[in-house]
UniProtKB/TrEMBL annotation:
It is an enzyme of class 2 (transferase). Belongs to the class-I pyridoxal-phosphate-dependent aminotransferase family. Its cofactor is pyridoxal 5'-phosphate. This is Aminotransferase. It comes from Umezawaea tangerina. One of its GO terms (molecular function) is pyridoxal phosphate binding. CDD domains: AAT_like (cd00609). Keywords: Aminotransferase, Transferase. Residues 32-364 form the Aminotransferase class I/classII large domain. SUPFAM superfamilies: PLP-dependent transferases.
Length: 365
């Protein structure tokens, strides 16, 4: 093998470019405080671990659609946690975390050259990657900007990664209406929906958003953040029954199946809200320490009303801020990872242990 790869040109993997700053931060005598990635650090609830191992001795293939119990648990959780009633369990499909779905959705929807995928101006890098993998064209939309004609897929993400911005139900409804005007599917990435602080995010499956019809709508959910299950790879997509059944058909053919133990773990996680509340509380506590420390250190924190990040700026180039923080042993992600408009912000994650957050607060002081 020569290592040459056919296919679309993809951007460099953003985090690779942080290596020098990471090396610098690691030289701090108190060790690095890595706030550059949103990876959970807290224990997996024992009820989820028990469910995982309870089906460890099942040698047969799992179903791509997931067990009926899993899909019922997803429907019930959407009703309990977000007030979404009447979701059809057949229109729920488990995924191996949500990143693979984000990366492959344009391809699974049959998009290709000539199709436009609209993404938020500042957004999770995989929306762009997914469009490029399909050979589609990416358009970054400013806040409230409608998608152009020819758009086949619109990504929404409230609460947003990286900004923590929350769209009101009216703003979500307007975005859905604008997408429908050009005949685009709307995929709403809702992986931070359970983690809100100063605003109340809504699902695209809320009637106040969709106006009574799920046509063309997909809600993309992840258990990585709300249940600290990033290591399990656990997510699901739900919404328009026709779209979900199309995804199911393709995923059956392609072997995109959530392992049976993870299906059992997801069923337990979606049936219990206490561990989600406890996790939310941990992040709220860390945010209550880190946010004032950043403000006192001269940062301005924009949006950040929900989700796992503080979108902070010192009014200087993002890389300069990353460098300053690295000197104090703190690693943050430059806003440029999320789009050109992020060049004066850094994204600071709340996903570190209490001890590491306390270290960051002390170093900022
Ligand atoms: C906006 C957004 N979507 C999707 C994901 C993917 O999460 P996972 O694949 O763990 O479900 C992330 C992870 O950070 C994210 O920030």
């Amino acid at each position: 093998m020569t290592g040459r790869r056919r296919g679309p040109a993809l951007p460099d993997f953003p985090w690779d470019s942080l290596a020098d700053h990471a090396a610098k931060a690691r030289t701090h005598p108190g060790g690095v405080v890595d706030l550059s990635i949103g990876t959970p650090v807290d224990p997996v609830s024992s009820l989820i671990q028990t469910a995982l191992t309870s089906v460890a001795d099942q040698p047969g293939y799992p179903t791509t659609h997931g067990t009926p119990e899993l899909r019922e648990a997803a429907v019930a959780s959407m009703a309990r946690r977000y007030g979404i009633d009447g979701l059809d369990p057949t229109a729920v499909l488990p995924t191996m975390g949500s990143k693979e779905l984000v990366g492959w959705l344009p391809t699974l929807l049959g998009l290709g050259a000539g199709d436009v995928v609209a993404i938020p101006a500042l957004s999770y890098p995989t929306y762009e990657v997914g469009a490029l993998l399909a050979g589609a064209t990416v358009v970054r939309l400013r806040d409230d900007e409608p998608p152009p004609p020819g758009t086949a897929l619109v990504w929404l993400n409230s609460p947003s990664n990286p900004t923590g911005r929350v769209l009101s139900a009216a703003a979500m409804a307007a975005a859905v209406g604008a997408a429908r005007d050009v005949g685009a599917v709307v995929a709403s990435d809702e992986c931070y929906l359970a983690l809100s602080w100063d605003a109340a995010p809504v699902s695209v499956l809320d009637p106040a958003v969709h106006g009574g019809s799920l046509d063309g709508l997909l809600a993309v959910h992840s258990l990585s953040k709300s249940s600290s299950l990033a290591g399990y790879r656990a997510g699901f997509v739900a919404g328009d029954p026709g779209l979900v059944s199309g995804l199911l058909e393709l995923r059956k053919h392609a072997g995109m199946i959530v392992p049976r133990p993870v299906q059992a773990a997801m069923t337990a996680a979606l049936s219990d809200d206490a561990h989600v509340t406890a996790q939310r509380h941990r992040y709220a506590t860390r945010r209550a320490l880190l946010l004032p420390a950043l403000l006192a250190a001269g940062f301005t924190v924009d949006h950040s009303e929900a989700g796992l990040y503080l979108w902070a700026t010192r009014g200087e180039d993002a890389w300069e801020t990353v460098g300053r923080l690295a000197e104090r042993g703190i690693l943050a992600a430059p806003g440029t990872f999320y789009g050109p408009g992020g060049d004066r912000h850094v994204r600071i994650a709340l996903t570190a242990s209490d001890e590491r957050i306390a270290a960051a607060v002390e170093r900022l002081g």
